[in-house]
Write a structure and sequence with these properties.
The chain is an alpha/beta fold and 445 residues long. The chain has helices spanning 16-26, 46-50, 57-60, 62-70, 89-95, 124-131, 155-165, 178-185, 207-214, 238-252, 350-353, 359-382, 392-397, 405-419, 432-438, and strands spanning 7-12, 33-39, 75-79, 98-101, 107-108, 121-123, 147-151, 191-196, 219-223, 260-266, 268-274, 281-287, 293-301, 304-307, 311-312, 330-331, 334-337, 340-347. The protein is 32% helix and 21% strand.
């Protein structure tokens, strides 16, 4: 892309989707594009830091590639900056040739049943945030829980079940905060019930994640063969077929004595969380393999319920938002305003397509969005003769404390120091103010 001045692009959100977009925009390294990554949290990496399970080190390794993107000369980081509060969407559009929204999906969906707000009923999103050291996460109400129900059969539900059941010492080599590790060491949990509304062939988890549960030391997996189809259902996908094979292998095992147990239930739809001051049981309705109610109910005694029924994106003031799909409406990655997809605003990641796909899906999604930016670039540059200049001066005028790349590097170095007294590697800092203190740097990149 040859230009007389660089194309200035603001990417709102420094998670994987936003960083992949920055990667494609600046990959040539010829100075033709300058990217400012604007992140609400005090550190970047989004769901890679706060969503991926700490014991999935191979996925976490993607951070090395994303760090290389952040350290490029044509990329700046502005973390701890809230769009809509510290700076508005209108101000971004005035100071950049293009704005890319990579907001992700940090909220959680609700089941919509009575008792969902009882103490002891916790969203899986908040639990994942807690064990991953998210600065806004509260400690879950699981201190005395022995039996826990996890509603959902996606990979996040499997992550939650695995963290609850795994020997905490096996998490010591990971970056979980020390307080989280201590809480998991002191956990009373002995039984985790994983609940799927439909038959096992409809479960969304991947076979690799499922097999991990059967490999946990000191954990017995309990599967009722009667809940599994006797013959492969019509239209069975290859992944579902592999999952059923694993489940049948587990169901055929003789009962094993173990300190902890994982119970898998299918055809069980939650209809109410029971209890007066705290969750004490989950009322379930038996369903057909397709998930239709049968009217037969029973109560599962539990001390806590973790709801893992999906992530949910939120809107941003000044940007169109579809409440039904929880996405920003787009055409070819361009934001649709008043029925028109005009150059200048683009969307990538979950806020564009919903919370689906794996890490690599964000890479291909970012490539598609950047292709639209590149196609529009000549017109965007011609639309203004001056260099809009970005937001650094505006943030300084407003005395907004933002974190740059050097600050992020300082956080990582401090987290390595945190692990030394405990004989561990890098240990995450949880507190927002502590993150900002660790990010103090004399010179910004």
């Amino acid at each position: 892309m040859s230009t007389t001045r660089p194309l200035r692009v603001a990417v709102v959100g420094a998670g994987p989707a936003g960083l992949y977009a920055a990667d494609y925009l600046t990959f040539d390294g010829d100075g033709s594009v300058r990217v400012d990554l604007i992140e609400r949290l005090p550190v970047p990496f989004g769901l890679l830091r706060y969503g991926v399970a700490p014991d999935h080190l191979n996925i976490k390794a993607a951070g090395l590639t994303l760090m290389e993107v952040l350290e490029r000369a044509d990329v700046e980081l502005y973390a701890n900056v809230a769009v809509g509060t510290d700076v508005t969407v209108e101000e971004l559009r005035a100071r950049y040739d293009a704005v890319v929204y990579a907001l992700g999906a940090s909220g959680d969906r609700r089941i919509g049943i009575p008792g969902e707000d009882l103490p002891g009923s916790v969203s899986a999103t908040s639990f994942v945030n807690w064990y991953n050291g998210h600065p806004e996460a509260a400690r879950p109400d699981l201190a005395t829980a022995r039996s826990v129900a996890v509603v959902g059969v996606g990979n996040v539900a499997l992550d939650v079940a695995r963290i609850l059941l795994r020997d905490a010492e096996e998490l010591s080599p990971t970056d979980v905060p020390q307080g989280v590790l201590t809480t998991l060491r002191d956990s009373f949990v002995t039984d985790v019930h994983l609940l799927g509304r439909r038959g096992p062939q409809h479960a969304k988890f991947t076979t690799k994640e499922l097999r991990e549960l059967g490999e946990l030391a000191g954990v017995a997996v309990v599967v009722d063969d009667g809940q599994l189809p006797a013959e492969p259902p019509e239209g069975l996908t290859p992944q579902a077929g592999r999952n059923l094979k694993v489940l049948k292998e587990w169901a055929a095992r003789p009962p094993a004595a173990a300190r902890r147990r994982l119970h898998l239930h299918f055809g069980a739809r939650p209809v109410e969380i029971l209890g007066e001051d705290h969750a004490t049981a989950l009322r379930l309705e038996a369903t057909s393999p397709a998930g239709e109610g049968t009217g037969r109910t029973w109560d599962l005694p539990v001390d806590a319920v973790l709801r893992s029924v999906g992530y949910r994106s939120s809107g941003l003031a000044g940007v169109p938002f579809d409440d039904s799909s929880c996405t920003i409406p787009t055409e070819e990655s361009r934001v649709v305003r008043d029925g028109v997809a005009a150059p200048g605003e683009y969307v990538v990641g979950w806020i564009k397509r919903g919370p689906t796909g794996i890490l690599g899906t964000n890479r291909s999604d970012a490539r598609d969005a950047v292709e639209s930016v590149q196609a529009d670039a000549p017109g965007l540059l011609a639309a203004r003769t001056d260099d809009p200049g970005g937001i650094a001066e505006l943030l300084d005028e407003r005395k907004v404390r933002y974190v740059g790349v050097r600050g992020w590097q300082s956080v990582l170095a401090t987290e390595e120091e945190y692990g030394v007294p405990h004989g561990r590697g890098r240990v995450k800092i949880r507190d927002w103010d502590d993150l900002l203190s660790a990010a103090d740097e004399p010179d910004r990149k």
